Automatic annotation (TrEMBL):
The gene is TDRD9. Keywords: ATP-binding, Cytoplasm, Helicase, Hydrolase, Nucleotide-binding. InterPro entries: Helicase-assoc_dom (IPR007502), Helicase_C-like (IPR001650), P-loop_NTPase (IPR027417), SNase_OB-fold_sf (IPR035437), Tudor (IPR002999), Tudor_TDRD9 (IPR047384). This is RNA helicase. GO terms for biological process: fertilization; male meiosis I; piRNA processing; spermatogenesis; transposable element silencing by piRNA-mediated DNA methylation; transposable element silencing by piRNA-mediated heterochromatin formation. Interacts with piRNA-associated proteins PIWIL1 and PIWIL4. The lineage of its organism: Eukaryota, Metazoa, Chordata, Craniata, Vertebrata. Residues 659-719 form the Tudor domain. CDD domains: SF2_C_RHA, Tudor_TDRD9. GO terms for cellular component: nucleus; piP-body. Its EC number is 3.6.4.13.
């Protein structure tokens, strides 16, 4: 029996009438004899907190910073307690050190475990082995709590209520209980379950206390006041019937024809309220599981007749929304995916999130979700990948399967449980003539995208009305917050220390686990971190941005070791560097430069390489419809490219000094008309002994052996890259061309490629946004007038007119003003001012002083805030 059961309530419920009175059922108690356990409350720990702690509030369960510090102080105090207890024994110091008892700390959730773990691991010279115990950590990590600690070390287990009854750790002597838990409750408005922070019951806390007296005398420290324990902590847990959805229960009642649910549930041990029953009946009618009466006046708010859908849902061991998902999956031809989602969401998450490695687990999950960024689709893709590997025989041995799980951050035991439920669901729906059809049309190249779109629609239908839609972000606000940087590639950090550009290498290393950093702009107390984008991929929010925002959500500490501003100004150039405090500095990792930059948006940066709004170009790479790369073929630009190519191929080329990696700019060979020459290139991918490179002056790409890649001299990085990226303005896919809500159809792609290939094009620049030219594109066809490619795509039904984004409109106005100026003024714009040259000199002096250690070792720490992104959404439940 359970140690937390309310015996009296059960005895009274099963009472029997004897001689005109109700006699409760007999209660038999079989008591064990645990070792004695001493209880302590905050009142007994005044020597630690000195009365500084605020009183606990019943309506506001929480852990304050001071209470965490009390727990840490207690752990530090246990050595003295052990010495005091064993002082009378004739043990040597070495023997005592070898036997330090374990400590079990009860915390309500993973966030609190993370915080406590950080506090304990920051304690130096305390010889502690700290282990988390939570349902989301991997099974391997959970097993660590049973290991004996290294001799001389104390084992600290940070656990949720999983260690209350499910797990017994034999060598625990001390229990520290925050008396909090997260309880599964049902929201009255949405009928959805969520974990809510609440005070644990006395029976649960007593169960926790019992963990300490298993092998020796123990101590339990409850970090609340004694009077709060006596007067406010509830005696028992609220029964599940009163806090969880009643949908499945009501469907079973209807299926078994046990009468009106209200009457039957009134006889339960803990009967639910009438309002809960009425709300659940209404929900089942909304879902379609119960029939709605034709005559509104005949409608019974406490009952209804089962529909066919209701009979199906009553037979499935999943909740109503997931049951409806399965039925809709059958109707719309995506039953297999819906079965996987229903099975996975009914059990514990099979994605592994190793403790302190959440970012790696999240990255893997994002990879499985693809462009959808959907948890449900990530579950489907991961399950199918595991299924496919098993069918191929790649996971025949248990070790191979475990290795696959570690590599893909999947818990094998849990994904097997999902597979069992998946098979069970398949068997149960077969009685309703629903079967999985794994065949797919061979000829349809867009089948995968269409199927994913249908699945997203089915998910929306199954969970209606409990979903949300993305609104349009405030573009004007995003431009202001990111100072003109692209929100799809950039995040912002705040609380940057003075002369922040000195620490750009530290910042780069902080974001290395997110992605390749292209540049960092330091602007006062802010830093704009821009990640590298593959130039041959369509416009989308980079995975690196998602990873950076996840770092912020996980509260990953971002610290810099820095010098104080006063120290820097006192040691360098007699304080002359102080004028750099307000200078905007750009660190370009591609070009390996640190330069001052104008305090303005980058609208005009790319336009300085454009001397006319009408350009003649050759298209070299089509990314997607309306998005392509090319280079100018006018006489002036042709001379620049020929001169650059000649200069490169007269050099004594040197192999790369570092191992090739994505985003590295180098020299790569390309054969044209049987003549091989070297050109400037950026590495896109490295695979085996070859790399895919993008030629930054022409816009095409090629596969090159790693041995043929050469180092690029610094002087060749100063000339701007000559390839131009284009996007046709005022155009978007038509409904006919839209696949899965984001891709252009294959027909649209083929038509666009045929229109821009094989001839020179004339483009009129409308705007420049993040170095991308938004243009109108014209093609000459024989003796005919130029045709606008956008007009052709709209006429043939592939595209439709669209409004340009805010940044594009702003850039358009700026370009109009810029090109009204004379050529002399244009030249003035591109000339460096003496002030900029002075700032550049001071930056170089400061960086040299820092790198040569003239400033000494950094003696301060700066805690950064962020990362932030203006497109980030907060979902409030």
């Amino acid at each position: 029996m359970s140690a937390t059961i309310n015996c009296k309530e059960f005895a009274d419920y099963f009472a029997v009438p004897v001689q005109n009175k109700m006699n409760p059922a007999y209660v038999f108690e079989v008591e064990g004899k645990p070792h004695s356990i001493e209880e302590y409350y905050l009142d007994d720990l005044g020597h630690i907190h000195h009365g500084r702690l605020p009183p606990c509030v019943l309506e506001e369960p929480m852990i304050t910073k001071d209470v965490y510090e009390v727990a840490v102080s207690l752990i530090q105090m246990f050595d003295n307690l052990d010495m005091k207890e064993r002082g009378s024994k004739t043990w040597s110091g070495a023997q005592f050190v070898l036997e330090r008892s374990s400590v079990l700390v009860f915390l309500p959730g993973l966030g609190e475990i993370n915080y406590m773990h950080e506090l304990l691991t920051n304690m130096v010279h305390k010889r502690l082995q700290v282990y988390p115990l939570h349902s989301s950590v991997t099974l391997e990590e959970q097993k660590n709590v049973f290991l004996s600690p290294v001799p001389g070390y104390r084992k600290i287990i940070l656990s949720t209520n999983i260690a209350e009854s499910s797990v017994t750790v034999p060598d625990v002597k001390y229990v520290i209980d925050f008396c909090l838990t997260r309880t599964l409750v049902c929201d009255e408005d949405t009928n959805y379950q969520s974990l809510r922070l609440s005070w644990a019951s006395k029976t649960s806390c007593n169960q926790r206390k019992g963990r300490a007296g298993r092998v020796s005398k123990g101590c339990c420290y409850r970090l609340i006041h004694r009077d709060f324990w006596d007067s406010s902590i509830p005696d028992h847990v609220v029964p599940e019937m009163l806090r969880c959805p009643l949908g499945s229960t009501l469907l079973k009642v209807k299926l078994l024809d046990l009468g009106e649910p209200r009457a039957l549930l009134a006889t339960a041990l803990s009967p639910p309220s009438l309002s809960d029953i009425e709300r659940t009946i209404l929900l089942l009618k909304e879902v379609g599981a119960l029939a709605v009466s034709v005559q509104r006046e005949d409608e019974n708010p406490h009952d209804g007749e089962l529909t066919f859908l209701g009979r199906v849902l009553a037979q499935l061991p999943v909740n109503q929304q997931l049951g409806k998902l399965i039925v809709l999956g059958h109707v719309f031809g995506c039953l297999d995916e819906c079965l996987i989602i229903a099975a996975a969401l009914s059990l514990k998450n099979f994605f592994a999130m190793p403790f302190r490695q959440h970012l790696d687990g999240y990255r893997n999950k994002v990879n499985f979700s693809g462009n959808s960024k959907s948890d449900c689709l990530a579950l489907v893709e991961a399950f199918k990948a595991w299924q496919t590997c098993r069918q191929r025989g790649e996971l025949r041995h248990p070790k191979d399967e475990l290795d696959w799980g570690r590599l893909n951050y999947v818990q094998i035991k849990r994904i097997r449980e999902v597979a069992e439920l998946y098979e069970e669901l398949k068997n149960r729906i077969s009685q309703f003539n629903m079967y999985v059809d794994c065949r797919r049309p061979v000829a349809d190249q867009e089948y995968v995208h269409k199927q994913r779109f249908i699945l997203q629609v089915v998910l929306a239908g199954a969970f209606y009305p409990n979903y949300f839609t993305f609104g349009q972000p405030d573009e004007e606000m995003a431009v202001r917050e990111l100072a003109g940087k692209d929100p799809k590639t950039t995040v912002v950090l705040k609380h940057i220390p003075s002369y922040g550009f000195l620490y750009y290498k530290q910042l780069q290393s902080l974001f290395r686990q997110c992605g390749q950093v292209k540049s960092i702009v330091f602007d006062g107390a802010k830093a704009f971190v821009e990640f590298s984008r593959n130039p041959t991929e369509r416009f989308k929010t980079l995975p690196a941005v998602y990873m950076a925002i996840k770092m912020s959500q996980l509260k990953v500490s971002l610290e810099l070791n820095v010098h104080s501003a006063e120290e820097i100004e006192g040691k360098v150039q007699g304080g002359a560097v102080s004028k750099l405090r307000s200078t905007r500095v750009n660190v370009d990792f591609q070009k390996q430069t640190v330069d001052p930059m104008q305090v303005s948006f980058n609208t005009l940066d790319r336009s300085r390489t454009i001397t006319d709004l009408l350009l003649t170009i050759d298209v070299t790479e089509v990314v997607e419809v309306g998005h392509f790369w090319g280079y100018r073929i006018d006489e002036k630009n042709s001379r620049i490219l020929k001169k650059l190519t000649a200069e490169i191929n007269q050099l004594q080329l040197v192999p790369l000094p570092v191992h090739p990696h994505p985003d590295l700019v180098c020299l790569a060979p390309f054969a044209d008309f049987d003549k091989e020459s070297y050109f400037r290139a950026q590495i896109l991918y490295v695979s085996g002994n070859s790399a895919e490179v993008f030629f930054v002056d022409y816009g095409n790409r090629s596969q090159v052996d790693l041995d043929l890649l050469m180092e690029i001299p610094c002087q060749l990085l100063e000339l701007p890259f000559q390839a131009l990226e284009f996007k046709i303005c005022k155009m978007r896919p038509s409904a006919k061309s839209l696949v899965c809500g984001e891709h252009w159809s294959g027909g649209a792609s083929q038509r666009f490629t045929s229109l821009v290939s094989g001839c020179a094009l004339l483009v009129r620049v409308f705007s420049v946004v993040h170095s991308v030219l938004h243009v109108d594109v014209y093609r000459y066809s024989g003796a005919q007038d130029a045709i606008n490619i956008r007009d052709v795509l709209i006429k043939e039904g592939y595209a439709e007119l669209a409004e340009e984004p805010y940044e594009s409109k702003q850039s358009h106005e700026a370009l109009k003003g810029l090109f009204y100026k004379s050529v002399e003024n244009m030249a003035d714009l591109s000339t460096s001012s003496p002030m900029k040259n002075d700032e550049k000199y001071l930056i170089r002096v400061l960086l040299e002083s820092f790198s040569s250690n003239k400033l000494g070792a950094p003696n301060c720490k700066a805690i950064l805030h962020g990362p932030f992104n203006p497109y980030e959404l907060s979902v409030i439940v």
